[in-house]
Every structure is written in C-alpha cells, then in structure tokens.
Amino acid sequence: MTANSHTRALCLTALLFVIGAFILRQNPKLALRSALADHARTTSPNAGWPMAAMAGAIGISLEKANCYTIGKPLHPLSDTDLSVAVRLYKASMFIWAGVCITIVWI
After folding, report:
1. How far is the C-alpha of 57 from the C-alpha of 69, rounded, in Å?
2. Nearest Cα residue to 23 out of 96, 75, 105
3. Quick one: CA torsion of 15, 54, 23, 105, rounded to 10 degrees?
4. Which one, of 51, 59, 52, lies nearest residue 24 by Cα?
5. CA 50 to chain CA centroid, nearest Å
6. I need a surface site. Which of 1, 42, 57, 94 has the fewest CB within 10 A?
7. Residue pLDDT, tens place only, 3-13
8. Could you report the per-residue pLDDT of 6-46, keeping only the tens digit for each?
C-alpha cells in the first residue's frame, strides 16, 4: 500500500465515522470539521483522521500530554462516551460491510 492510498483509506475511515455519527444522531458536522482541522496534529500518520472524526462525533477532545490535542470538548468526558464510541465504531463497520457487499453484488 502506497502512502497516498494509505491516506485515502484513513480518510475513508473518518468518512465512515461521519456517516455513522449521522445515523446514530451524534454530531456529524463536528466530526467532519474535526477530521479536516485536526487530522495532522498527531505524530502518527495513521491515527489522525479517524481519531479526529471520532472525537468530533462524540464531542470530546483526545489528548496526548505535551504532544497534541484533537477535537473541541462540548462536555466533560464521561463513562457513556466510551459506549457511544463503541456504537459509532460498530455502525461504521456495518456501513462498510454494506458497501463491500453491494460492490460484490454489482
């Protein structure tokens, strides 16, 4: 996988989180804004897009001390944020499975 195709795959993951946020009535607009604005803040080229989209969708910020902060917190972090993140991840993977099945059937 080339660096360019790897970046596209990460953008796709972020897009799936945005769509999942819409379906689960989270915050798809903030998910997209956060992904576009914050994806380059991490030191890892692999993590920025999906982390930023997830943080925006849930309305939290993710921080690595003295390195980066992704997202703008809309509320204090709570225990329910983890279950929302898991539901969003699962919804996004079901969307991806549906896309793949559709492509195979076409």
Report:
1. 15
2. 96
3. 40
4. 59
5. 4
6. 1
7. 565 567 678 89
8. 567 678 899 999 999 999 999 999 999 999 999 989 887 67
pLDDT-based confidence at residue 1 (cuts at 50, 70, 90): low
**Contacting residues for 94 by C-beta, under 8 A, at least 6 apart:** none
- The CB density around residue 90, as the number of other CB atoms within 10 Å, is 12
pTM for the structure as a whole: 0.86
**Residue 74: what residue type?**
L
Q: Report the C-alpha gap between 27 and 67 in whole angstroms.
A: 26
| Spatial separation of the C-alpha atoms in residues 68 and 16, rounded to whole Å | 23
CA-nearest of 45, 58, 49 to 14 is 49
Q: Is 24 helix (H, G, I), strand (E, B) or coil?
A: coil
3-state helix, strand, coil in the chain (%, to 5): 70, 5, 25
Structure tokens given for 35:
């992904």
Q: Which residue has the tokens 């992904």?
A: 35
